[in-house]
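Need the bound structure for pyridoxal-5'-phosphate, inputs here:
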Amino acid sequence: MTSDGRSPDQRIPVYRPDLSGNERRYVLECIDTTWISSIGSFIQRFEESVARETGAPHAVAVCNGTVALHLALHCLGVGPGDEVIVPTFTYISSVNTIAQTKATPVFAESLADDWNLDIGDVERRITPRTKAIMAVHLYGAPCAMPVLMEIAKRRGLFVIEDCAEALGSRIAGRHVGTFGDAGTFSFFGNKTVTTGEGGMVIATDDALAARLRLVKGQGQSLTRRYWHETLGFNYRMTNIEAAIGLAQMERLADIAARKATIAQAYRTLLADLPVTFQRLDAGTQSSHWLVSLLLPPGADRAAVMTQMSNSGIETRPVFFCAHEMPMYDTGQRFPVAQDIAARGISLPSYPALTADDVQRVCGALTEALAAVTA
Ligand SMILES: *Cc1c(COP(=O)(O)O)cnc(C)c1O
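Answer from helper R.:
Posting the output first, comments after.
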């Protein structure tokens, strides 16, 4: 038995939410009061807690992280004829939501060390049609926002920050999502804070925030029922989801501290292996969403993952590049992004992971690498 009472042969998943705080109590409160739909006190309390944590003046809850991106793009006026620059190495939502506005996603290369946007490449891809840049803070490492914002301001472009993996990520103390025009979060089950399904848009501008609220609720006038001022969507979050989210936010400091400890333990225990961790710049803080690393060039990733699975350890490959998906494939090449996509894996990274678990994962990775490179 391990110190937490689980048998050593128990499988270690990549992620498992920790719902050990007020989650149950708040959900029962929704049921007992019958406020289970998208009206109820938890929505506002959850929005306020995210606004407080990020330092954003406005936070608007929505039903997932994908529609958060779509709502932000739509409300910034991104649409047909526009181009939006986005990293090809990202989760597919960052790209699909651009296409859903009928704008054209323009892919950009990634940096080899922190896996985020190569800002020099972004600048080369700006055309007269470029309307916005989507920055993604992958796996929690902040994209270099100060440099990106300088370019965006000079060229008159909007910036949307996809912070789905970056709740708790900061640059010189400032939370990601507050540099650009809008920042978005996901509260899917494997995200740092979860509501099951859920999302949030944060914004500084009062007029943009008002528009986000209007459009997420079918464009219905906030003062006149069934009067729809503009094309809208039903992107509302439920009070039950917000109840879980509020309870999660109450423990965010603990969750973040656990995840930082786990990430540091991996880096220390695997220091002698020929693997490469995502670079974290001095002065930045990562959410350490999923601890991810690159296997050595030529190592058979599928074989490593299978062998680890046989030792009871679940891992994930990192994302495929979006420019290789059938609906976006125009034969472009992005050598750096493709190399990261081919070699990256994510390790178990959930807050309840014990020191023994981390040791077990590291032992299994060491053995698997030795076996496939022998
Ligand atoms: C999780 C994620 C999303 C989408 O969030 P959902 O809540 O699953 O819709 C968007 N972008 C990135 C980078 C993500 O990791």
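Comments: The first helix runs from residue 23 to 33. The first strand starts at residue 58 and ends at 62.
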